[in-house]
Amino acid sequence: MGIGVTKIRNAAKGAIIVGCNSEKDIEKFKEAAKKELGGKYKIEVPKKRMPRVNVLGIDQSDAELGDEELLNAIINQNPLGEIGAGDELRIIHKYTNNKTEKVDIILEMNAEYFKGIINRGMINIGYKRCKVNEYIRVIQCLKCCGYGHMAKECKKKIACRNCGEEHNHNECNSTDYTCINCFNRMNKFNLQNIDIGHKATYSRCPCYQKI
After folding, report:
1. Which one of 81, 83, 159, 193 is at 20 to 30 Å from 167 when CA atoms are compared?
2. Is the pTM of this model over 0.85?
3. C-alpha triplet 66, 161, 206: angle, nearest 5°
4. Pure H helices in the chain
5. Residue 158 CB burial class (10 angstroms; 0-12, 13-18, ≥19)
6. pLDDT in tens, 105-144
């Protein structure tokens, strides 16, 4: 076909992943595959991941705004590049810090806005300047809440992301958070000053921040 194919491998549910040398080769491969396979298979190019940042220490009153209103406030108060709320800027997660009673969020955005925010290190939200750092995607198991593997590969017992007990987080009735990772680390190393009172998915979890 005269197409620069770099790899071919099987994926889940009968899918096949094909790697190409360039964007031009990708388009050529798509056209050739559609012509050869017709409508028998779905052919798609995965979207490129946009960068993400942690925004720390947002006041509760600002965090309680609707997502669109909060995003517009961030854009209006921090004119760092061409961006609009929606596909170019969106809230991925919100977390409440029980110690500070502030809210942390994970934002996804385009590369231009990301560069401006990271270079500044702070953004304005309401009457407060909030610290910003790059969000590093870490693989976390949805079964045991451990790191470095996925649920389908997990050989450990289930652990609730909220309380750390052996049940799914959807079945949890606990009103107190206990991070299973920090709890296990505390017991393993006999630590006295580690904070375990948060979800296992908390962005400022001591175990998460050490990765």
Report:
1. 193
2. no
3. 90
4. 23-37, 60-63, 67-77, 111-120, 180-189, 206-210
5. middle
6. 999 998 888 888 899 999 999 999 999 999 888 889 999 9
